[in-house]
Amino acid sequence: MSHRPEVGAGVERADLSNRTVLVTGATSGVGRETALALGRLGATVFVHGRDRDAGRTVAAAVENAGGDAVFFRADLAERDTVRRLAEAVRDRTDRVDVLVNNAGAHFSTGELTADGAEKTFAVNHLAPFVLTHGLRDLLPDDGRVVTVSSEVHRRFEGPLDATSLDDYDGLDAYARSKLANVLFTVGLADRLDGPTANCCHPGFVPSSGLWRDASLPVRAGVGLLSRLPRRLVGGFADTPATAADTPVYLAASPAVAGVTGSYFSDCAPAEPSAAATDPKHVRELWRLSEDLTGISWPR
What we know:
Elements: E1 20-23, H1 29-40, E2 44-49, H2 52-65, E3 68-73, H3 79-92, E4 98-101, H4 119-135, E5 144-148, H5 170-191, E6 196-201, H6 216-227, H7 230-233, H8 240-243, H9 245-252, E7 262-265, E8 268-270, H10 279-293
Parallel strand pairs: 1-2, 1-4, 2-3, 4-5, 5-6, 6-7
Antiparallel strand pairs: 7-8
Helix pairs in contact: 1-2, 3-4, 4-5, 5-10
């Protein structure tokens, strides 16, 4: 049975009027559908993306769905641009009720950012780390941080260091970043007093723009899956709309009010890998992230 948050899972009772939500990576795929669903619930949605035209198109769609929308353009690969995004949001509002860290990337070729971090790790983990820090005092006591991870996190157990391209493997780099998303959520939940932090696996979405920077064989395989009838791929593949169910659920459902530090899949709590909740790994990730970003989180 399909879970549709706007008609089930308790989200249909949610009223996000007078609530402000920031969704990163909202110009396509899961992020776009998440922004639209939250707009239907009455939220003011801050739509983030890299492409101005696509962002304005999504913002208009959110408004047509019943919400208000503002587009913010930023490349999340560099910490300074992420900080400027946080500053732009702060210039626009004094309150962010929900932050959805959705933006993600997969790179087949290893590359270090100007900050010295492997690029997949920078976009998928360090950007949420910096952005959440920059907006933390705008979160109300009942605020929520939702970070989109993946079941792929189970593929990686360590080490977490993302400052070398030795023996680079694109899928391993992606898995490391998704493990970091879960570890970040666990550490963040301990550091936030009031607001909650949860993460989720949205599903596998072949039609997502996530794979645009993957290798040609990966893009070809994903493209083939995206063209197969859903009945043939069954529960293996999701559409962006169905994959948005769990992020929307965590962002809006009264059922998860007060729940924090948890991993969800298919709108329900799920057990992440053992590595994802290892306190040693949480501490290691936090030290590495602070070193790479120059940020010191209050304890």
